[in-house]
Design brief:
It is built from 2 helices and 15 strands. By secondary structure, it is mainly beta. Strands 3, 5, 6, 8, 11, 12, 13 and 15 form an 8-stranded antiparallel beta sheet that branches. Strands 4-7-14-9-10 form a 5-stranded antiparallel beta sheet, with no helix packed on it. The radius of gyration is 17 Å and the shape is globular. The two termini are 22 Å apart.
C-alpha cells in the first residue's frame, strides 16, 4: 500500500520553470521536492476506495493495459484515495475523455462534509458537453463552477491524451494543462470567497480554504481514461 501522507520540508533552494520542465538553482526560494509516489500502480486499485467507508468500487472502473478506465453508463462510483494529503504537494496525471464526455479530479475532499465535495479540476469535452456552454468556469482546467481557466489554454482534441497538474503551495493553488499554467488562485482570498458565493458551493462552510483531504476521481457516467497518476511533496 502506498502512503499518501505528505510531510512539509524545507531544503535546497530551487526555482522551477514549469513550462519547460527544467529547474535552475536559486537563493531566492527554498522549496524542496520529494520523490514522486505513484497513486495508481497500473495493475490494481490498491490505495483507492469509495467515498463511503466500507463501500464497494463498482464495475464501471476497469484496468486495461496499465490504464485506469471509467466505462460509460456502468456505475463505478467516485474513486477516492484511501489516505488524506496534508501540507504542500503536487499532483500529476494524464487523461483523455470520450466525445461529449465529462469527468473531474477533486482535491480537498474530507469525510467531515458527509459528501464528496471538494475543489475540482474540470476535465471536459468543452465543445460537446452541455457544461462547456454554461461558461468557462465549467470548462477544462477550471476550478469547477468557481474560477475559469485561461482563455488560450492548450487543450488537445477529444480522444487525445492531456497532461495535467495541481500544485498546492502555502495558500497558492495552480492548475496546469499540457505544460501551461491555466489558473492560479489564493485559498481564503477575497476573490475566491466572492467566486464561491456565486457558485453551487456557497453553503459549504470551509469551501475555498486549505484543508487536509483526499483526492477523488469522479464518476459522471462518461468514458474517461487515466494514467501516470502520481504525487510528491513540496
Amino acid at each position: 500500500m502506498i502512503s499518501l501522507r505528505i510531510a512539509t520540508g524545507i531544503a535546497a533552494a530551487i526555482i522551477l520553470s514549469f513550462a519547460t520542465g527544467c529547474s535552475t538553482p536559486s537563493s531566492s526560494q527554498a522549496t524542496a521536492k520529494g520523490p514522486w509516489q505513484p497513486l495508481f500502480d497500473g495493475k490494481s486499485l490498491a490505495g483507492w476506495r469509495t467515498y463511503k467507508v466500507g463501500g464497494k468500487i463498482g464495475a464501471g472502473w476497469i484496468i486495461e493495459d496499465g490504464i485506469l478506465k471509467k466505462q460509460a453508463k456502468i456505475s463505478g462510483g467516485d474513486l477516492m484515495s484511501e489516505q488524506a494529503i496534508s501540507g504542500d504537494w503536487e499532483l500529476s496525471w494524464e487523461w483523455r475523455i470520450a466525445k461529449n464526455g465529462n469527468n473531474g479530479l477533486k482535491y480537498f475532499i474530507t469525510d467531515a462534509r458527509k459528501a464528496a465535495i471538494g475543489h475540482e479540476y474540470q476535465m471536459l469535452d468543452d465543445d460537446g458537453h452541455p457544461d462547456g456552454k454554461v461558461g468557462p468556469h465549467r470548462q477544462t482546467g477550471a476550478f469547477y463552477d468557481v474560477l475559469p481557466p485561461a482563455k488560450d489554454k492548450p487543450l488537445r482534441p477529444v480522444g487525445e491524451w492531456n497532461a495535467s497538474r495541481v500544485v498546492v503551495q502555502g495558500s497558492t493553488v495552480q492548475h496546469w494543462l499540457n505544460g501551461a499554467k491555466v489558473l492560479e488562485y489564493e485559498l481564503g482570498s477575497d476573490a475566491v470567497k466572492a467566486a464561491v458565493a456565486k457558485s453551487k458551493f456557497k453553503n459549504v462552510g470551509d469551501f475555498g480554504t486549505k484543508v487536509t483531504g483526499h483526492i477523488l476521481l469522479t464518476d459522471h457516467n462518461d468514458e474517461c481514461w487515466f494514467r501516470s497518476v502520481k504525487l510528491r511533496s513540496l
